[in-house]
Amino acid sequence: MKRLPAPVHPVAWWLWAIGLAVAASFTTNPLLLLLLIGVACFVVVLRRGDAPWSRSLRLYLLLGAFIVVIRVVFRCFLGAAGSGPVLLDLPRVPLPDWAAGVSLLGPVHLSDLLDGLYDGLHLAAMIICVGAANSLANPKRLLKVVPISLYDIGTVVVVAVSVFPQLADSLRRVRRAQQLRPARGGRWHLVRRVIIPVLADALDRSLLLAAAMDSRGYGRRGESRPRTRGLLAVVTVIGLIAVCIGIFGVLDQQAPTLFRWPAFVVGVALAAAGLVFSSRERTVTRYRVDPFDLTAWTIAAGGLASGVLMVIATQVAPAHLSTPTAPAQWPVVDLLPLLAAVTGLVAAAVAPPGVIHHEEAVA
Amino acid sequence: MIEFREVSVRYADAGTPALTDVNLFVDEGELALVVGRTGAGKSTLLGAVNGLVPHFTGGRLSGQVLVDGLDTRTHPPRELAEVVGRVGQDPVAGFVADTVEDEIAYGMEQLGVPPATMRKRVEETLDLLGIAALRSRSLATLSGGQQQRVAIAAALVTAPSVLVLDEPTSALDPGAAEEVLAAITRLVHDLGTTVVMAEHRLERAVQYADSLIVLPGGGVVRSGDPASLMSDSPVAPPVVELGRLCSWSPLPLSVRDARRAARALRSRLRAPAARARATGDVVLAARGVTVRYGEHIAVRSIDLDLAGGTVTALMGRNGSGKSSLLWALQGSGPRAAGSVRVGGARATASASPASVGLVPQTAADLLYLETVGEECAAAGPAARTLLDRLAPGIPDAQNPRDLSEGQRLSLVLAIQLAADPAVLLLDEPTRGLDYVAKQRLTEQLDQLARGGRGVLVATHDVEFVAGLADRVVVLADGDVIADGPTADVVASSPIFAPQVAKVLAPAPFLTVADVAAALEEQP
Fold first, then answer.
1. What angle do CA B184, B188, B193 make, to 5 degrees?
2. How many CB atoms lie within 10 A of CB B393?
3. Cβ contacts of A205 on chain B, cutoff 8 Å
4. Residue B177 sits at the chain A interface (C-beta within 8 Å)
């Protein structure tokens, strides 16, 4: 029997994206990074629906470009200390003693430019992978799979994520309206006249949303007693603090033994207990949860395989994962990393096309 | 079902209490309509029903509010969710999920309803409101009327015994408003739901109300039978005003009742006096204006001439291309084809502020400074004088965001008029305005037209059009389907006809003022 097309489980897309992001984190080879970005964008363009969140990829691409530019600028004009051919011979600006370690301007070498470029691309690739997940998986559907104990935190995150498309929308509206008024004043004025209405709008909307959620029963505690609730909250927070101390202790070899593994283990136990018991107090049910079916498994596996293959490549063929900049060389791609980078494409083949509503809004 | 005992509400930063010593009783299965001017405390009263006031909004509430026997003092809104369903003014802002089905199910998820029951109730509610065909649609792609019905479905699905609605039809075109009101009355009649509803446009709602809750201002609340309270209510629909003018008793609340009472009046009245406003030269001439968004054609090759000294109303469903046409005429919106000439010169985006002024739908988008004074100064030397003429008594130091809806509209109008445009375009200016503010706006626009400007108003508000416009242009699906003098276009349409026209048809009267003038002429 032919499988019926069904929406893909959102977690599958996130696992896929995390896999790609992990792959990107293990290389600074620009060809591999561009390939990973390409794979992510290709899958998004082919498989996204027409919902508002699906259009956010462009925003993430812009953010990526911005990161690359910032990275290059900082690398070239602040603390340039590379080697190789000089591209731009700028005079070094002398700084006072307290700013030792920072240098302003000075000659810009080819290696500075390339280092900045690769570094920026590295970060941008990871962010674009996350952006791809955001465009493919409905962030609000993620809420359905969050364990009940993390439900409140999950809601906060989901509401925060969904603010961005709304912000983009109100930004467009305000800019259009502002064109109606003659421009006056300097650049700061220009920024202000867009930002203030947009922020005021966002604040109004969030208050309305909060009131609506409150009226519809969000955050109900039902029968539970306030004292039990308070106790559970305290236990959870203490547990989480202990986890943090434990992690620091584990990483810091000088820390006393008590603050290392014991703190970590006790913290995890306390936090878990707090969350589990508080979840018993919540009476939230889920409506039509997406099944984690074969398609979902394949998509998740495709992305994770990409990450795993790249990790294996760091052991087996580490030679060309990072491209030397001093002296500068052309980036070279080995077979295994190449395979790792393109494995993510599996998702495009298995996923059903995104939901497109052909019916016009009967406005 | 709902009981207020000696309830007073006072907000921390306000000098006067929002409600004082309110005693109120709404019986089970009643449709109670909350009526009053902007700022009279309608939202506070509605919020108090499900505990949003004071649990969410802050402020001090003294006295007792009981809903189905539960005290809102001990039950915050989330605990009252099973008993009270609430639909806010802007349904979009309250949406939590993004498809119709998920949105409807959200409330039940919070209450911990088992999945199988949830599925069944969602299906039932979809059918109850007639939105089953929309089930998997994204909420953002729905029309205003559909969104409002989804919001009502989402509030209703948990089978609350009380439904609170804050201006459910204010953003809707007349057809969609009828749809929503029909759904609401069906709930009251078939399910015995108690409904408390605030509404500015009484002409749409008052005939369905079982009881009326009037807030005359100053935190006072009066409630009772609609017909007796309407006789001296500070806000009243045209049909009631006509009844008051002719001293009909009992006061008619629906067009049907008024038609019966008006038999004698109809035979007595002769033709209404023509409204005198001298038509000037053509100030804006649009030829073949087309707006398209990708595949979708919003405005299809429209020719439009606006004469100076006239007010033209642009009507049509939500999404029929009214806003797109206004922005294209102004010059800063997209225009795929066609030309717009303003006073002989071609309108472009850069040259536009001087020649064509536009007041957008969300007027607040134009404002960004902290005080009214700064806003006026930024707009030009004439703005302050204009504002004082349009809405006297707004202090310079006030923050524009604290102004009432009507005052803010006047401020934006003053800012746009400061550049002395020959043509003024307004997009849905009456949204959120009460009768008094609407009357002021009518006078303001009338003055502007008499000053020789061409005014084009896109609006859903039939009564506003009847009182103001010389000419009506109706758009549907991007085409002009009707264009002519107000009386001809509006009176012949079953949806766009104002109440007075419906009552006095076939005599071509549009407003109570017309009738009053005619009665004075022929005693």
1. 105
2. 6
3. 93
4. no
* pLDDT single digits (tens) B62-104: 999 999 999 999 888 988 998 999 998 888 888 887 789 989 9
Q: Is the peptide bond between B494 and the residue preceding it cis, with omega within 30 degrees of 0?
A: no
Q: Are B456 and B314 in contact (CB under 8 A)?
A: yes
Could you give the ipTM of this predicted complex?
0.85
Q: What is the pLDDT of residue B410?
A: 86
Cβ neighbours of A214 in B, within 8 Å? 52, 55-56, 76-78
> Residue A209 and residue B96: Cβ atoms within 8 Å?
yes
B75 neighbourhood in chain A, CB within 8 Å: none
**Rounded CA separation A154/A148 (Å):** 9
Pick from B261, B173, B220: nearest CA to B41: B220
Nearest CA in chain A to B401: A200
How many angstroms away from the CA of A240 is the closest CA of chain B? Answer: 27
The Cα-based distances of B489 to B314, B481, B498, B509, B519 in angstroms read 11, 10, 11, 13, 24
Q: Is residue B364 very low, low, confident or very high in pLDDT (cuts 50, 70, 90)? A: confident
pLDDT of B231 reads 84
Chain B nearest C-alpha distance from A118 (Å): 37
Interface residue B379 vs chain A (CB under 8 A): yes
Q: What distance in Å separates the CA atoms of residue B405 and residue B420, rounded to the nearest whole number?
A: 23
Q: Which 8-state DSSP code applies to residue B116? A: H
B139 to chain A: closest CA residue: A51
Respond yes or no on whether the N-terminal peptide bond of residue A352 is cis (omega within 30° of 0): no
Identify the residue whose tokens are 């029929």.
B320
Distance CA B368, CA A347 (A): 46
Chain A, nearest residue to B319 by Cα: A363
Q: What is the 3-state secondary structure (H, E, C) of B326-372?
A: HHHHHCCCCCCEEEEEECCEECCCCCHHHHEEEECCCHHHHCCCCCH
The verdict on B317 touching A (C-beta cutoff 8 Å) is yes
Q: DSSP letter at B284?
A: E
Burial B267-281 (b: 16+ CB within 10 A, else e): eebeebeebeeeeee
Cis peptide before A91 (omega within 30 of 0): no
The nearest CA of chain A is from the CA of B461 a distance in Å of: 17
**Phi, psi angles (nearest 5°) of residue B110:** -65, -35
Q: Does B76 touch chain A (CB under 8 A)?
A: yes
CB B24 within 8 Å of CB B3: yes
Q: Tally A–B CB contacts below 8 A.
A: 174
- Chain B positions touching A219 (Cβ under 8 A) are 78
User: Taking the CB of residue B406, how many other CB atoms lie within 10 A of it?
Assistant: 22
Q: Most B CBs within 10 Å: which of A171, A215, A218, A282, as the mutation test of the B interface?
A: A215
Q: Using an 8 Å Cβ cutoff, are A72 and A113 in contact?
A: yes
Q: For residue B330, give the chain A residue with the closest CA.
A: A180
Query: In the numeric block, which tokens belong to residue B291?
Result: 């707006």
Whether A146 and A154 have beta carbons less than 8 Å apart is answered as yes
